[in-house]
Amino acid sequence: MTAAPIAPSHLHGVMRRYGRYLPLTDQTPLISLGEGTTPLVRSRGIEQRAGVGALYYKLEMCNPTGSFKDRGMVVAVAKAVESGARALMCASTGNTSASAAAYAAHLGMDAFVVVPDGKIAMGKLAQTVMYGAQILAIDGNFDDALRIAREATDKHNIALVNSVNPHRIAGQKTAAFEIVDDLGEAPDLLCIPVGNAGNITAYWKGFTEYAEYGRATRHPKMMGFQAAGAAPIVQGTPVADPKTVASAIRIGNPASWQSATAARDESGGAIQAVTDDEILEAQRLMAAEDGIFCEPASAASVAGLLKLRRDGLNLQEMTVVCVITGSGLKDPDTAMQTTPRLIHLPADLAAIERALKWG
Ligand code: AN7
User: Fold this and answer.
1) Quick one: DSSP state of residue 20?
2) Cα(327) to centroid(ligand 1), Å
3) Contact, 254 vs 127, CB < 8 A?
4) d(CA 63, CA 145)
5) Is there a contact between 31 and 6 (Cβ–Cβ < 8 Å)?
6) What whole-number distance in Å separates Cα of residue 203 and Cα of residue 175?
7) CA of 249 to the centre of ligand 1 (A)
8) Are strands 134-138 and 159-160 parallel, antiparallel or unpaired?
9) What is the full DSSP assignment across 39-103?
10) Cα–ligand 1 centroid distance for 45 (angstroms)
11) pLDDT in the model for residue 342
12) 133, 339 contact by CB (below 8 A)
């Protein structure tokens, strides 16, 4: 018996929606876990607080594994299958490993993920465990992990699915297409966290290609934000021992450094640093004032926007998009350190009324 047809094909996945802009052939399998077509949500609280004309969140946490990585991973894995690969490998601060492991599971492939031991947020590790990947926890940081993954995939017949793989960038650029399709034009500013710098590279590619295809008449200024303790591009030199609460962007020597600075310069944008305190405050404000709970690395985009405002940039006439790269559920430990507002009580209304001073 053959499988029944599923949802209308154009609604299902980035390869079907944007295939004509992707490096697909007749041999590329059109796989999907339902990635892409994520919501562009208007802010209420932060928009007012930062005095922005219109502020939108591109909610990449709504992808199937809870981060933007799925958009590029689906294309990288499809191309790996097309080339005959049976196994995938990546280095990761957590989200890439979760995504690679999910698509590998979907296709019955083996996944090997190299991660810094003890530095991966709990939700990401839990996902990767459940998807059944082989987790190689090394005594080193992300930059060490990427070096090892490159060496391993050079030597053995395994596909490398980090963003140094151009198919990852090709898939991720579709997020920029969606923003333009939703707004009818490119925004004035795009605020985005920067770690290994693949995503800022992909968005810039997406915005410039869409303008070339006549889908937009302009492009945004690309505003990238690194954590202050892991800000090699801002400082202009690699950071040997990167440190930040935003473990996703704890990266000292980004692989896509050159293309990130090109995106910055060609767009007239900037790449700046935000402190851990600014990141955690932005994460809390977004949750409390906009109802959006993202992981710390994602909040770097909003921390950056608030910093631009404090530094005197007038945003009143601007349309701004902040890329919300990953879900807050990825990192419950950090969240519970930030806002513990539990009141422990016996199980009766009178005790609750007393605690809330309801007379
Ligand atoms: C939530 O998973 O590098 O600048 O190995 O997980 O494209 O690296 C994750 C990066 C931003 C930075 N937000 O994006 C990995 C990894 C979140 C992330 C970034 C990451 P890039």
Assistant:
1) G
2) 12
3) no
4) 25
5) no
6) 7
7) 6
8) unpaired
9) -EEE-SHHHHHTT-SEEEEEEGGGSTTSBTHHHHHHHHHHHHHHTT--EEEEE-SSHHHHHHHHH
10) 26
11) 86
12) no
- Write out pLDDT tens, residues 280-297: 999 999 999 999 999 999
Nearest-CA residue for atom 14 of ligand 1: 195
- Please identify, by atom number, the ligand 1 atom nearest to the C-alpha of residue 172: 7
Q: Are 30 and 78 in contact (CB under 8 A)?
A: yes
**Alpha-carbon 191 to chain mean position:** 12
Asked if residue 93 has its Cβ within 6 Å of ligand 1, the reply is: yes
The shares of helix, strand and coil residues in the chain, as percent rounded to the nearest 5, are 45, 15, 35
Q: Does residue 172's CB lie within 6 angstroms of at least one atom of ligand 1? A: no
pTM: 0.95
CA distances from 74 to 184, 249, 290 (A): 26, 22, 30
For residue 241, the CA-to-ligand 1 centroid distance in Å is 17
Q: Check residue 12 and give its pLDDT.
A: 83
For atom 20 of ligand 1, which residue has the closest CA? 248
Task: Please state the separation of Cα 129 from the chain's center in Å.
Answer: 20
Candidates 249, 257, 274, 302: which one to mutate for ligand 1, based on the most atoms within 8 Å of Cβ? Answer: 249
Rounded distance between C-alpha atoms, residue 22 and residue 14, angstroms: 9
Residue 309's nearest CA partner among 44, 42, 40, 55 is: 55
> What is the pLDDT, as a whole number, of residue 3?
60
* Bridge partner residues of 225 (DSSP): 193, 272
Below-50 pLDDT ranges, the chain: 6
How many Å separate Cα 232 from the centre of its chain? Answer: 19
Paired strand residues for 54 = 319
> Could you give the 3-state DSSP secondary structure of residue 332?
helix
CA nearest to 323, candidates 298, 295, 348, 297: 298
Ligand 1 neighbour 95 (Cβ under 6 A) = yes
